[in-house]
Amino acid sequence: MVSVDEVIPLIESYRPLNPLGEVEVSLKEAIGRVLSRNIFSPSNYPPYTRATVDGYAVISEDLAGVYEDRPKTLKLVGKVATGETKLLRLERGQCVEVSTGAVVPYPADAVVLIEHTHARNGEVEFYRSVARGENIDIAGSDIAEGEVVAWKGTIVTPLLVSVLAAVGIDKVWVYRPVRLGIIPTGNELKTPGEKLEYGQIYDSNSTMIYAYAKSIGAEPKIYPRVHDVVEEIEEALHKALNENDIVATIGGTSAGLEDKTYRVLSRLEPGIILHGVREKPGRPLAVAVHGDKIVFALPGFPLSCLLTVNLYLLPVILKLQGTPKSEVPTIKARIETPIRGEPGIRVFVPAILKHNGEMKAYPLTGHSGRVSAMSLLDGYIIVPEDTEHLPEGTEVDVLLNPFQKNYELNIIGSHDPLLQSIVANLPGYDKVRMVNVGSLSGLQALKSGVADMAGTHLLDPATGEYNLPIIRQLDIKQALVLIGYKREQGFIYRKNTELVSSFKDIVDKHLRFVNRNPGSGTRVLIDHMLEEESRQLGISPEEMKKRLTGYTFEVKTHEAVAYLISRGIVDVGIGVKYIAERYGLEFKPITSERYDIVIRREAYTNKLVSQIIEKIRNLDKATLPAGYSLDTKTGTIIEL
Amino acid sequence: MVSVDEVIPLIESYRPLNPLGEVEVSLKEAIGRVLSRNIFSPSNYPPYTRATVDGYAVISEDLAGVYEDRPKTLKLVGKVATGETKLLRLERGQCVEVSTGAVVPYPADAVVLIEHTHARNGEVEFYRSVARGENIDIAGSDIAEGEVVAWKGTIVTPLLVSVLAAVGIDKVWVYRPVRLGIIPTGNELKTPGEKLEYGQIYDSNSTMIYAYAKSIGAEPKIYPRVHDVVEEIEEALHKALNENDIVATIGGTSAGLEDKTYRVLSRLEPGIILHGVREKPGRPLAVAVHGDKIVFALPGFPLSCLLTVNLYLLPVILKLQGTPKSEVPTIKARIETPIRGEPGIRVFVPAILKHNGEMKAYPLTGHSGRVSAMSLLDGYIIVPEDTEHLPEGTEVDVLLNPFQKNYELNIIGSHDPLLQSIVANLPGYDKVRMVNVGSLSGLQALKSGVADMAGTHLLDPATGEYNLPIIRQLDIKQALVLIGYKREQGFIYRKNTELVSSFKDIVDKHLRFVNRNPGSGTRVLIDHMLEEESRQLGISPEEMKKRLTGYTFEVKTHEAVAYLISRGIVDVGIGVKYIAERYGLEFKPITSERYDIVIRREAYTNKLVSQIIEKIRNLDKATLPAGYSLDTKTGTIIEL
Questions:
Q1: B476 with B576, same domain?
Q2: Cβ of A284 under 8 Å from any chain B Cβ?
Q3: Among A88, A112, A137, where does a domain finish?
Q4: For residue B86, what pLDDT is reported?
Q5: With contact defined as beta carbons under 8 Å apart, do A333 and A382 qualify?
Q6: Which residues of B touch A209 (CB under 8 A)?
Q7: Phi, psi for B431 (deg, rounded to 5)
Q8: Which PANTHER family does the protein's record reference (chains A, B) (predicted)?
């Protein structure tokens, strides 16, 4: 096991990460690539002394002391149009007519604007004097022949292209791109677009790595996925090694596979140079060297894979392509909640950044298997190796996500299809980040400051009232509540199942139940109903829960409930009517719950927030999704 | 004439800038393009409840209260490998062996790590309890089917690609790219790679626009250049209009051409909608509309062209491609020198940004014909329309160059080939920005804080000493002087010219002289020599200067002197031996001048500066360029 900072130096000690070679390409093809040679200007710029206005080229001393009422006449000895290459000369007392961009004849040192002159009979009368150098642009005054116009290692940008073209360059030498072979491994993988069985998962890492490699100018290729069989891994690896400079295998997630990949890599020469990094996520990274080729065996969990790609694979590619700056950028931010470290391990915590007075970083919850975090996270909070605990208020380094987007509004809370469709139809919808974490986590995110709005449907069993009692218990300051709409909750089951209208039915019919996660509004409802029914049955709620198969089997969304039921993994659950209908399932109503939205006071004046409020106030009963309803309170604002 | 802020709204009033259409592409092809539809997840993620470690799936309540010394045995009823799709079940008192990534059988709600168990004879002994949800990843817990995973208008990044692939998406709808036709116009233009006559200039704008358009995903095409002829312009324009959504003609610089382009554009329907913007540079911009196509007639001077491309052409393309955020970003910075505004005109001053304690902006000198500024500038200082004068210390808005590079060291001053080659061979060479402005401007840049090092060769006529007296007169504080090397200066002329060894020779032989710019070290030498010679001849220095043809014809570099002589535009000048030899010219030595380097004290500890000092101290006499020499003082540091 090595530390994060040792990985690249260790690779370099086996195989120096110098550019792989250079190719000469046209200027157009060079865009985004890295110059492999210093470029010395082959010419002077401008290449000739030129007029910057239409007028008369003169020797400025000839017009010294000339004014409107004391004009002077010079002899007109010729005319130069733009693009003309014949060389005129002039002498003291003479002038030459020139167009903008035309050659200024030697030794004229200024051009007088045509509007300050009057020409007649081969002579020109001047009404103004002119300063030396006025309205001319002298040959070589901008770029001298032989001057370095671009250093090697420079990325060819549109601006550099302009400079190179101006001095006449049409071809440049650039470092050749790295060829990267990507091999997804694992029996459980399917390719996006294929049909998935329960127990299989789409390979998302290959396309992510492909996209990153493309974005830095490399030449990636995804190889067919490989099963958990030594011979298959070995054959694919050697084919990819023959065709590429670097090969990235992406671990399936099974331990057996890791062992097999390891066995194949250890047969390379010199073989595995590191296995395991003291970091989290991303610990299982292995790197092997084979001659001058490098193999990265990347972990399979998306966030682990992403982190090792950012920390090691991309910097190595950039170095091999000659890009001098290959470090991932970091910024400083303050944390609002304490974060635990792990002794000896550098922990990277996926986080959202938000400027609340100063830059603050909020950890995204969830483990490295989360893929939704990919498009939500702004970066990773770095918890250094020597840190057991980062207290609230600590200033931390945040490793930036290279494709960070600026969001204006964070809506974090319970997922609701109607709220989502309202946001989707706003003009500024793309500035909204919606994170679905459930009602309670949403309210906590609002309290900490990261969420601007939080959708919630939490029943207070004591009062039978929705949302407000819980919001008040949480002591959320500086917030308002927008009263939303009602959603019908009920039992959901497959159409061929016998009617379910109570938990007793589920127990009696030996059906498999699927529960929701603690903190969700639906879970509060479920527990409340179980207590009521157990009272009626004269047993303890604990006994009732024990009898209910699957009470401890929790999923996090309405959709997951419906999905597991439709797949036949479970038989019955509780959720909203809208989702039941979408999955073609039976729905037996239980109650109507309130879905309200809490708004951070500071965000209340935000234009997007105003638009959302307006949309909710103008909801049309006729076009609401199944199971939704409005009442007279919908759209009112309550001060906390 | 309209204001800067009116241009795009005016275009929109004739032709709404909505996306042009959409196309369905593979995820790989979509990278960098803009989604034209909201993407709802077609599946739940993870698609099944999976184990995140190797171990045994259990119902957590079965292991309540289990410890090392109070183990419990469960019946082993099966095994699920990763990728297996057969559906196992278990009951209370049972467990199932699972691999990382394998399906967790219903209703197991946790997985116990294999190292906390012991298996034998179809049973497993457990030595630890487990929390509900531990080591499992529940179906749909991350992304719910139907959840928006990406809004329309989002740019497809590698991270988004990962999320989309994870939910099984392999194709997406994106806005179709804008087709842009680029037509360079002007008789003086040549294409880079072609041979240039004196009076001709390379077309650099077309490739710059091409590169910018490419970088934002458009499909640009450069058409053959067009001469200053109405019929040619008209034919090219109509061909390009047929094949593209937008056409950009790039003005030659001559006034006649502008008129002709204008005449052609006015025949379109509805025709020219604006001609002239109250901005500088970029004033001559014209825009025409033809049906639903747009024509931009861009100014020809590189910096004017660049600015109008950034302010108008690129935002219009981005809007037509559906990118929601199309504004050019600005930042705040403080100016160290006053800047003049122009009433009614928004002035954009090319500038270098530097963080000296706070962000500061330093204007780059020179007019809009400068092309070298392109790769040096960090942005433009914006001087608003209502401003006559921005005093020193004002906080200004700086329009950022979209391809800004971070430099660590600014070397601004007199161009010296030896210093340049020293820098070119440093490991961190690409972090150095070298700007060649002459000795005096370099010292002023150092005094103001923008330059970290300034190379200088300025003779003090009073003492006959180089550099130090002038540096002291300028009262540069907080700086050190690194004593450099000597360079031979002399008369330069073509090999077939009669020997020149004085200014009297030049006058007597009626040769055409080329002078250097005021502020350059060479100009100080020239004026000093002219005074000496005129004294010997018994005439006034003014008379001597009058007799010298070309005294008022100034160029800014040694290379330009040599170039004009080699081209036969002039006959003689003064410059360093090294350049004379490179151009194959005769060199008659006059004197050896000192080339020293002034270093800002704060930059003295910079690693690159230390390396440059070290290289100068270790220069080898044997490998110096022609005309260079060292002495005992070379490499010493003098405190000011």
A1: yes
A2: no
A3: A137
A4: 85
A5: no
A6: 158
A7: -95, 5
A8: GEPHYRIN, MOLYBDOPTERIN BIOSYNTHESIS PROTEIN
Scan for tokens 């294999």, then name that residue: B114
d(CA B470, CA B459): 8
Question: What does pTM read for this prediction?
Answer: 0.83
Pull the structure tokens for residue A79: 């005319």
Contact state of B137 with A47 under an 8 Å Cβ cutoff: no
- For residues B454 and B558, state if they share a domain: yes
Tokens 């073989």 — which residue? A271
Please state the domain count of chain B. 5
Q: Under DSSP, is residue B114 helix (H, G, I), strand (E, B) or coil? A: helix
Spatial contact of B638 and B620, defined as CB atoms under 8 Å apart: no
For B379, the closest chain A residue by CA position comes to A159
Residue B258 lies in a domain: yes
> What CATH number has the domain bearing residue B123?
2.170.190.11
Which tens digits make up the pLDDT trace of A95-135? 999 998 899 999 999 999 999 999 999 999 999 999 988 99
B268 Cβ neighbours under 8 A, 6+ residues apart: B288, B289, B290, B295
Q: Looking at CA atoms only, how far is residue B447 from chain A in angstroms? A: 23
Question: Does A412 reside within a domain?
Answer: no
Which helix (H) or strand (E) element contains residue A165? helix A158-166
B502 burial class (0-12, 13-18, 19+ CB within 10 angstroms)? middle
Contact map slice: A 163-202 vs B, CB within 8 A? 163-171, 186-194, 196-202
Strands A270-275 and A286-290: antiparallel
In terms of domains, do B524 and B581 share one?
A: yes
Q: What is the mean pLDDT of residues B162-178?
A: 95
Q: Which residues of A501-537 are buried (b: 16+ CB within 10 A; e: fewer)?
A: ebbbbbbeeebbbbbbbebbbbbbbbbebbeebbeee
- A98 to chain B, any CB pair closer than 8 A? The answer is no
Please indicate if any CB of chain B lies within 8 Å of the CB of A321.
Answer: no
B590: domain CATH number is 3.40.190.290
Q: Rounded to the nearest 5 degrees, what angle is found at the Cα of B249, between the Cα atoms of B245 and B253? A: 170
Average pLDDT value for chain B: 90
Give how far B311 is from chain A: nearest CA, Å: 15
Cα-based torsion angle of the residue sequence B95, B96, B99, B104 in order, rounded to the nearest 10 degrees: -90
Rounded-to-integer distance, Cα B305 and Cα B298, Å = 6
What type of residue is B268? L
Place of tokens 């003009």: A427
SS (H, E, C) A25-69: EECCCCCCCEECCCEECCCCECCCCEECCCEEEECHHHHCCCECC
B525 and B583 share a domain?
Answer: yes
Q: Does A221 lie in the same domain as A198?
A: yes
Q: Are residues A169 and A189 in the same domain?
A: no
B292 and B206 housed in the same domain: yes
Strand A50-51 and strand A110-113: the pairing is unpaired
Of B202, B256, B436, the CB nearest to A144: B436
Integer Cα distance of B173 and B151 in angstroms:
12
Q: Are strands A479-493 and A628-629 parallel, antiparallel or unpaired?
A: antiparallel
- Residue A85: inside a domain: yes
ipTM for the predicted complex: 0.82
The dihedral built from the CA positions of residue B227, B233, B239 and B242, taken in this order, carries a sign that is positive
Q: A156 lies in which domain range?
A: 29-45+142-174
Task: Look at residue B410 and tell me if it is in a domain.
Answer: no
> What is the mean predicted confidence (pLDDT) over B467-490?
93
- Domain-terminating residue out of A369, A404, A439: A404
The reply to whether B73 and B132 lie within a common domain is yes
Which of A39, A50, A148 has the highest number of chain B CBs within 10 A, making it the mutation to test binding with B?
A148
Binary contact (B83, A189; C-beta < 8 A): yes
For A498, the 3-state DSSP assignment is coil
In chain A, residues with a C-beta closer than 8 Å to the C-beta of B205 are 162
